[in-house]
Amino acid sequence: xxxxxxxxxxxxxxxxxxxxxxxxxxxxxxxxxxxxxxxxxxxxxxxxxxxxxxxxxxxxxxxxxxxxxxxxxxxxxxxxxxxxxxxxxxxxxxxxxxxxxxxxxxxxxxxxxxxxxxxxxxxxxxxxxxxxxxxxxxxxxxxxxxxxxxxxxx
Length: 154
Description:
Elements: H1 2-28, H2 34-64, H3 70-80, H4 84-127, E1 131-133, E2 144-146
Antiparallel strand pairs: 1-2
């Protein structure tokens, strides 16, 4: 059990590092310097690879204990084991993972927003107007509509 606890603690440490990097990524998305974002993404990739390696080691440890891989196996072991440190390590990892998921959703939202702004700017440059999808047209069908007048008519 000590090996499994140690692996969970390592995964927690890496997950907390990932949380910090996701915060850096969110900040970098609002900076004009793309090099900062590239550096952050490289750090994120390195942490993700390290987490994958820990996950493989954890699954091997679970297999030696006769448990299923992944969260299911750990939950089965925690439910049938009285080792409080193992339970604490698992709970800490779950909480850190949830925080990472929430931060990643924020980063994803910022990326989508930036993409929308870029797409609209490209539409203005190429077509002279921004086109959007209406929720419904008069006939009840989604239709494309210009949000603004072409630049030549403005």
